[in-house]
C-alpha cells in the first residue's frame, strides 16, 4: 500500500498542486511524511499513483490516409489517396511483424512513417504536454515506461 501509518492518507493541495499527508483521526496535516512511514513503500506508491512525468520521450509510426490533417508524405509529391480503413490494415500488418519479431518499430518507421519522424526511426524525442495533438498526447502520457500502445486512431 502507501507505507503510511494507520489513519494517515495522501491528499493533493489545490493551491500548491502537490501531495500532503493528512491524519483523519487527529485532523493533523503535514507536507512531510509522518513519523513511522515506510519511506520506500511511500516512494513506490507515489511513483505508481501520483507522480506523472512532465516530459516524456516516445516513438511512433504514422500511416496517413486521405482524410488526415495533411494527407502528404515525404515519400511522394502526390497526395495520399488511401482510405482510413486501408491505413489501419497497413498498420495491423506492421504490428504483426513487430510482434513476430521479423521487424522493429524503428526499422519500419524509418521506411514507412508518413511524417518527418521517419528520419529518426520514428523517435519523436522529448516533449511536454501541449506540444502534440491532444488525442495522441493523452495516449502517450498514459503509457508506462517501455509499454507499447496498440493502434491509435
TrEMBL record:
Domain called PpiC: residue spans: 53-153
Coiled-coil regions listed: none
Keyword Acyltransferase: no
Entries under PROSITE patterns matching the protein: PPIC_PPIASE_2, WW_DOMAIN_1, WW_DOMAIN_2
Any one GO CC term of the record: nucleus
GO BP annotation list: negative regulation of transcription by RNA polymerase II; negative regulation of ubiquitin-dependent protein catabolic process; positive regulation of rDNA heterochromatin formation; positive regulation of RNA polymerase II transcription preinitiation complex assembly; termination of RNA polymerase II transcription
Domain WW: start-end pairs: 2-36
Enzyme superclass (EC): isomerase
GO-annotated molecular function: peptidyl-prolyl cis-trans isomerase activity; RNA polymerase II complex binding
Substrates-to-products reaction catalysed: [protein]-peptidylproline (omega=180) = [protein]-peptidylproline (omega=0)
Source organism superkingdom: Eukaryota
Pfam families: Rotamase, WW
Gene3D superfamilies: 2.20.70.10, 3.10.50.40
Keyword terms: Isomerase, Rotamase
UniProt-recorded name of the protein: Peptidyl-prolyl cis-trans isomerase
Lineage, broadest ranks: Eukaryota, Fungi, Dikarya, Ascomycota, Saccharomycotina
Amino acid at each position: 500500500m502507501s507505507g503510511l501509518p494507520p489513519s494517515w492518507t495522501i491528499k493533493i493541495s489545490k493551491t500548491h498542486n502537490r501531495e500532503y499527508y493528512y491524519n483523519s483521526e487527529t485532523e493533523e496535516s503535514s507536507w512531510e511524511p509522518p513519523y513511522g512511514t515506510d519511506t520506500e513503500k511511500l516512494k513506490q506508491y507515489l511513483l505508481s499513483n501520483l507522480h506523472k512525468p512532465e516530459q516524456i520521450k516516445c516513438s511512433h509510426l504514422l500511416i496517413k490516409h486521405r482524410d488526415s490533417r495533411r494527407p502528404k508524405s515525404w515519400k511522394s509529391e502526390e497526395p495520399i489517396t488511401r482510405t482510413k480503413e486501408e491505413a489501419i490494415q497497413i498498420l495491423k500488418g506492421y504490428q504483426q511483424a513487430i510482434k513476430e519479431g521479423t521487424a522493429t518499430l524503428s526499422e519500419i518507421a524509418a521506411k514507412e512513417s508518413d511524417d518527418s519522424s521517419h528520419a529518426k526511426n520514428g523517435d519523436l524525442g522529448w516533449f511536454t504536454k501541449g506540444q502534440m495533438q491532444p488525442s495522441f498526447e493523452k495516449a502517450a502520457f498514459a503509457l508506462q515506461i517501455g509499454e507499447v500502445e496498440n493502434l491509435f486512431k
